């Protein structure tokens, strides 16, 4: 073997034939394969329908004959702090190797497909030689997810056949069971249809649209104000109060309007403006499934005092103050990149 460990980083949403081919190529060169499964602690969305545990089960089932040579660790995203993500990768590999009994002299490499600009991260670890594998002919995970959600339509059998042809047999059985027996599938299909129709409404625009939104990070006496979304996308998830900027208002005015509409916060506007501590733009290209959406987050801070009464309104089913520590641990329950915005604004990252 050329290596003691090869590291395979991915989301595996779902684990398909291409992933299986890379894994088997890795096990031809390394004693063990470390899977770092991305988007850990993310909510279920049409981009990330499965938990880390579910994706690990898929991979182990597809590679059952070599299961004893597979090692798994969750990997969180840090959309606005890439050095933190790089450190997490390094830390996770070191911990896996240590727990497995590997020493400081363990031979470690990285394996993956350096296919396009999205694979830049493979060059971010010069301490690990890169094993660039040939691409296996298979549909992309994005296409496979689309077929899974389209299987809910009247003529969904063709979609399921395409899905079956591109994933290992045990994975297909799991996906079929997920489709038939999991309540989460129904909500994901609803979200998929909403996003599909939303994008279709802009299909005839002369240029791909860029949307501008504003979000409020209101911190009061060690608590942060969140709202629970009433409808798709992200129905039932907690989010920062906010929304789209209207044509006749500034971005700050939009933020204040959405804050008051969604939370019924009774603080006077001059008090809110006086509590503004900072603002930042969050523009990760994949932050919203609706399309290219750039948000401006405004940080309002009230160091002490009794928490003002709030209640849900407009697009928000409910409004509530959460202790900051609790909010920062709500990853799977938070909408889009709002955990990353909170971490950035509140300084945990």
UniProtKB/TrEMBL annotation:
Report the source organism.
Oleiagrimonas soli
Report domain Nudix hydrolase positions.
209-345
Kindly indicate whether the keyword Nucleotidyltransferase belongs to this entry. Answer: yes
This chain belongs to the protein called ADP-ribose pyrophosphatase
- Keywords on record: Hydrolase, Nucleotidyltransferase, Transferase
Q: Pfam families, per this entry?
A: CTP_transf_like, NUDIX
Question: What InterPro entries does the database record attribute to this sequence?
Answer: Cyt_trans-like, NUDIX_hydrolase-like_dom_sf, NUDIX_hydrolase_dom, Rossmann-like_a/b/a_fold
Which EC number applies?
2.7.7.1, 3.6.1.-
**Which GO MF terms does the UniProt record name?**
hydrolase activity; nicotinamide-nucleotide adenylyltransferase activity
């Amino acid at each position: 073997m050329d290596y003691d460990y090869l590291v395979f980083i991915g989301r595996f949403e779902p684990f398909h034939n291409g992933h299986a081919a890379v894994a088997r190529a890795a096990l031809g060169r390394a004693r063990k394969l470390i899977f770092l499964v991305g988007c850990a602690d993310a909510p279920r969305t049409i981009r990330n329908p499965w938990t880390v545990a579910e994706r690990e089960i898929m991979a182990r089932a597809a590679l059952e004959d070599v299961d004893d040579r597979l090692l798994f660790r969750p990997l969180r995203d840090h959309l606005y702090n890439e050095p933190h993500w790089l450190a997490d990768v390094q830390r996770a590999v070191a911990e896996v190797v240590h727990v497995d009994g590997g020493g400081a002299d363990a031979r470690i490499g990285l394996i993956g497909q350096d296919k396009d600009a999205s694979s830049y991260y493979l060059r971010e670890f010069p301490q690990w030689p890169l094993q660039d594998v040939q691409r296996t002919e298979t549909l992309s995970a994005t296409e496979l997810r689309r077929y899974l959600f389209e299987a809910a339509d009247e003529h969904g059998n063709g979609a399921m056949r395409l899905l079956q042809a591109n994933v290992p047999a045990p994975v297909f059985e799991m996906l079929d069971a997920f489709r038939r027996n999991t309540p989460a599938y129904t909500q994901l299909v609803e979200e998929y249809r909403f996003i599909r129709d939303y994008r279709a409404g802009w299909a005839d625009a002369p240029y791909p649209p860029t949307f501008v939104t504003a979000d409020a990070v209101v911190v009061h006496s060690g608590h942060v104000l969140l709202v629970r979304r009433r409808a798709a996308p992200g129905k039932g998830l907690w989010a920062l109060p906010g929304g789209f900027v209207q044509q006749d208002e500034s971005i700050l005015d939009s933020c204040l309007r959405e804050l008051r509409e969604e939370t019924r916060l009774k603080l006077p506007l001059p008090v809110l403006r006086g509590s503004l501590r900072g603002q930042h733009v969050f523009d990760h290209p994949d932050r919203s499934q609706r399309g290219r959406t750039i948000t401006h987050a405004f940080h309002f801070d009230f160091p002490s005092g009794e928490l003002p009464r709030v209640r849900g309104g407009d697009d928000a089913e409910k409004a509530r103050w959460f202790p900051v520590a609790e909010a920062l641990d709500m990853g799977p329950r938070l909408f889009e990149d709002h955990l990353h915005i909170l971490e950035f604004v509140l300084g945990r990252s």
